[in-house]
Amino acid sequence: MNKDTRILIVGGGCFGTSTAYHLSQRGYISIRVLDRYPPPSCEAAATDISKIIRSDYNEPLYARLGIESIAAWRSWPMFRGLYHVPGWILSAANLSIPFVEGSIDTCKKLGVQGLERLTPEQIRSRFPVVKGLLDGWNVNIWNPTAGWAAAGQALEQMARVAQQQGVEYISGDKGYARKLIFDEISQECKGVICADGARHDADLVIIATGAWTPSLIDLQGQLTAKGHGVAHIQLTPAETKHYAAMPIMDNLELGYFFPPKEDGVFKLAHSQFVTNHQTDKNSAITTSIPHTFVQSPPDGLPLEIEATMRRNLRRVFPELADRPFCYTRLCWDADTADRHFLVTPHPGHKQLFLATGGSAHGFKFLPIIGKYVVDLLEGKLDAETVEKWQWRAGQNFETKNLAHMDPELELADLTGWKDRQVREGKQSSKLLYLYD
Ligand SMILES: Cc1cc2nc3c(=O)[nH]c(=O)nc-3n(C[C@H](O)[C@H](O)[C@H](O)COP(=O)(O)OP(=O)(O)OC[C@H]3O[C@@H](n4cnc5c(N)ncnc54)[C@H](O)[C@@H]3O)c2cc1C
């Protein structure tokens, strides 16, 4: 691939921005990123106040990548002040037990230090801030090397450095890709048309549109857009100090909880995801399509999701379970059935690549995922990774060792979310959006 190849990246979230950064690091000089929003895109799953950074995986590929990524989070100047290491407790109730057990084995084999199994009693005695019964926290592993990153700020930083290195970012309608252009005879991808009607010609197009990918291009069921319920509670300064002593606590079935940020925002998230099956008006593809509160500011969390989040919070921090949520979000990512990424050439269209399929675990690789995408483009990616991330429409998968095995809920079957913010007299979630 020549260094002046015109490369168009659609989507400037985690995969797109990391790819743009690494392309520019390797000396490519014509890189354009299209995104509906300026970086950090307010709809990107990557734009958040915190994301977990860890190496606990039962699949050695991601455990190795996690270790590599943690080294970058610790040392790269662009992430200075954005990475924190309180350690975490990874837990499973039932369905996720094989994933957690497998993670322990893999981490030990890879030399991760300090792993410990803890019972609920041991958790409460080591972290007295945890007062709940921890019912359902059946298999628990403490990993002191895991932490969290201020995700939206990290994404913004990486996009800024990429821009300093010559990458062009285009946003708004000018960056909102609506249609891919294919040569009528060869079917080769030639570029993209955006919402403002402008055409962006390119020698190579990389689709990195996260949860929006399956409604932009037909992926034959390989990706499902799933929404995760997220909520924030505003703590007082005294409470902030008190809860600073907690680790990240993540039960793969019963939700997860972050230590508060300095501004007292305590974040919790739900582990059972939502789909929203519709026919996309633009592409005519029927699939799960993100329903975000940025696009629909009057909407809020479904009542059933909030009730479960509060029930799960009560298991860990019962004293917080009835506190008001100061911000809520449905945050969308694209899941593959086997949770491997989808980083692959498109089999039907030359010069078209996909870099997506974060499957609820992609953010931690922000510093390095682009390096592997560029390796693929340059034909240097190792065969094992190529195979795991390949186009795999129609394949059946062994799914028993995965995280997040609960069946999805369909948004239309849930209640109370439509116009909820308005009904409850709250500001829209869009206005309350925070990432720093
Ligand atoms: C609630 C939640 C919690 C998570 N927690 C963690 C965690 O703790 N640790 C972890 O490692 N991972 C976590 N993840 C997963 C991680 O955030 C995602 O895997 C990762 O962000 C996916 O990156 P992406 O680039 O594919 O998508 P995104 O980061 O969502 O970026 C997609 C981009 O495409 C843009 N876009 C979409 N459509 C178009 C279009 N038509 N034209 C132009 N631009 C477009 C969007 O604006 C966006 O900027 C979590 C995900 C969610 C939803």
Account of the protein in words:
There is one protein chain. The chain is an alpha/beta fold and 436 residues long. The protein has a domain at 1-49 and 150-222 and 338-397: FAD/NAD(P)-binding domain (3-Layer(bba) Sandwich). It contains 11 helices and 24 strands. It has helices at 14-25, 60-75, 97-109, 120-126, 151-164, 213-216, 237-243, 303-316, 369-377, 383-388, 420-423, and strands at 7-10, 31-34, 51-53, 83-84, 88-92, 116-117, 139-143, 147-149, 168-170, 177-182, 189-194, 199-201, 204-207, 224-234, 248-251, 255-257, 265-269, 274-275, 277-279, 286-288, 327-335, 342-345, 352-356, 409-410. The strands form 6 sheets. It has an 8-stranded mixed β-sheet. A 6-stranded mixed β-sheet has the order 9-2-1-13-23-22, covered by helices on one side. Strands 3-8-4 form a 3-stranded antiparallel β-sheet, with helices on one face. Helix 1 packs parallel to helix 5 (151-164) and helix 1 (14-25) crosses helix 9. The two termini are 38 Å apart. Flavin-adenine dinucleotide (FAD) is lined by residues 10-16, 34-37, 41, 43-46, 51-52, 175-177, 208-212, 216, 228, 230, 269, 331-333, 356, 358, 360-364.
**Biggest sheet strand line-up:** 6-7-5-15-16-17-14-21
Number of strands: 24
* CATH homology superfamily of the domain at 1-49 and 150-222 and 338-397: FAD/NAD(P)-binding domain
Put simply, the count of helices is 11
What structural class is derived from the secondary structure elements? Answer: alpha/beta
Strand portion: 15-25%
In the CATH hierarchy, what is the class of the domain at 1-49 and 150-222 and 338-397?
Alpha Beta
Helix coverage percent of residues?
10-25%
What does the radius of gyration come to?
21 Å
Largest sheet: 8 strands, mixed
Examine the coordinates and then state which fold CATH places here, giving the name of the CATH topology of the domain at 1-49 and 150-222 and 338-397.
FAD/NAD(P)-binding domain
Low-confidence stretches: 431-436
Mean pLDDT: 95
Distance between the termini: 38 Å
